[in-house]
Design a protein that fits this description.
With about 475 residues, this protein is of the alpha+beta class. It has 13 helices and 14 strands. It has a three-stranded antiparallel beta sheet, with no helix packed on it. It has a three-stranded antiparallel beta sheet with strand order 10-11-12. The two termini are about 50 Å apart.
């Protein structure tokens, strides 16, 4: 980061600036690019163009405090993630390490290190020192006009969180994949469907990846429903192995979703619309369903109970009341209810004995659960089928190749005249025969999956299908 004096000022801040002979256009928070005027080109060799990116903090002089320089790809460490050089000192150290004889001063003179910001107008600052200071009314009007003219979201979203986001100390990582698309905004566009997310009800419907990579936040967002449909959110088996988590497609990080669902449940308590509450709770149930974590199971029970009360027409106040445990006792031939907080037992008897109980509603809930169970079973069976098909196909090709090699070598042996290397050729042939026997035995073991994965010995699933199973 380049730190300047709070009162430093030079050049124009309303439109463009001049530095090192370059005509500088102002840029927005989080912008990035390649080459002049903010990064060198053809250095150290023709075609070696450097890249640049700015953060969010802006100096009073009008340029970004956080600006980053990225060397050409062939000068970067291939074993590390792309990391920007955040200060002149780090750039000098990089150049001296890579090119000890290079002229550092000439390098910095080939581009402009300072990058002017568009957002400065928000504070009513002006580049004309001879003008009178603006009045309060003029300043507010100027700031409003500047906001409409300069602060724009790439997706055209007027409620984008990036608008006016000045002063944040944390930068976001450079992204030249999805963020290079003309209509995609990292701050408000879903990385999976590219549509804008909604901030209604605290933004319950999307998740923002806050994973830190080499000091920079990922910052990409995704609709939770998109993540659930793409098997990148919730509980997912197989190689991805999620348990009430979100998997970010951009940075490969995993985020815990249990805390997000807790916030979601808290949000529902202040919502007046029953339809909206049910919609929000449905998202929470989808996220937590099938989780093996105790905290997720407990939270799922809490949400499911609230959903059940809501569907039965309970008052909103009663929906969020903590359920007291009810025991049924029979005394003098009459049913009496006794409330207990511990231990947790018979908690489903209260709705059953309520006058609002409707068996038709319970039947619909039961049918919905059965549909979900059958759908999950179908998905798991399809996944097992694809895994078995791939592994068996690989094994078939292996055996087929060995058959062809043995056929060729057998033909060669039958036509070869006695020679000193005959023994070695025969040894090679017999070795392949042994290898073929092993692969056929392996194939015989793999045929056990015809009984379904659940009945296949665990060592076969682990050794031949690379599938870890729990005890």
């Amino acid at each position: 980061m380049e730190i300047d004096s709070p009162n430093a000022s030079s050049g124009s801040i309303s439109g463009t600036r001049e530095e090192n002979g370059f005509h500088l256009n102002r840029v927005s928070v989080g912008d990035y690019g390649e080459g002049l005027p903010y990064a060198p080109i053809d250095w150290p060799k023709p075609g070696d163009n450097w890249s640049w990116r700015v953060g969010k903090r802006i100096a009073s002089s009008g340029h970004f405090l956080d600006r980053y320089l990225y060397p050409p790809k062939h000068l970067q460490d291939p074993h590390r993630r792309k990391v920007g050089l955040a200060s002149k000192q780090s750039v000098e150290q990089f150049i001296q390490a890579k090119f000890p004889n290079a002229d550092v001063n000439a390098f910095f003179a080939s581009f402009s290190w300072k990058i002017p910001s568009k957002q400065l107008r928000l504070f009513g600052m002006t580049d004309n020192k001879e003008e009178n200071p603006p009045t309060v009314e003029t300043e507010e009007t100027s700031a409003s006009d500047s906001l409409m003219a300069d602060l724009t979201c790439k997706a055209g979203n007027k409620t984008c969180t990036s608008l006016g986001a000045v002063g944040s100390a944390s930068g976001v990582m450079l992204c030249d994949i999805c963020c290079s698309e003309p209509g995609f905004c990292r701050d408000c566009c879903c990385i999976l469907c590219c549509k804008t997310v909604s901030s209604s009800y605290g933004g319950y419907s999307y998740i923002r990846c806050q994973a830190l990579l080499n000091g920079y936040a990922c910052g990409h967002v995704a609709h939770l429903n998109c993540g659930l449909r793409a098997y990148m959110a919730g509980t997912v088996g197989g190689t991805i192995g999620l348990d009430a988590e979100y998997y970010c497609r951009r940075c490969d990080s995993r985020l815990d979703l249990v805390s997000h669902v807790r916030k979601l449940l808290k949000t529902c308590e202040s919502v007046d619309s029953r339809d909206d509450i049910e919609m929000i709770l449905s998202v929470g149930i989808s996220i937590l369903r099938d989780s093996r974590r105790a905290s997720a199971k407990q939270l799922l029970d809490q949400i499911s109970l609230a959903m059940s009360k809501l569907r039965k027409g309970a008052d909103l106040e009663d929906v969020w009341k903590k359920e007291e445990i009810v025991e049924v006792t029979e005394e003098n031939g009459a049913l009496e209810l006794e409330n207990h907080k511990d231990p947790p037992a018979n908690r489903f008897l209260q709705p059953l004995l309520s006058s609002k109980f409707d068996h038709r509603v319970e039947t619909l809930v039961l049918e919905d659960e059965i549909d979900q169970i059958l759908m999950a079973l179908k998905k798991s069976q399809e996944s097992e089928y694809r895994l078995a098909e791939e592994a068996l196909s690989v094994q078939k090709n292996c055996i087929q190749d060995l058959y062809q090699q043995l056929d060729h070598e057998r033909s060669t042996l039958s036509q070869r005249a006695p020679s000193p290397d005959a023994d070695s050729v025969l040894d090679s042939f017999l070795s392949k025969v042994d290898h073929l026997k092993q692969e056929i035995r392996k194939f015989k073991d793999m045929k056990e999956v015809a009984k379904r994965f659940g009945r296949t010995p665990k060592h076969i699933l682990k050794d031949h299908f690379k599938l870890e199973t729990e005890n």
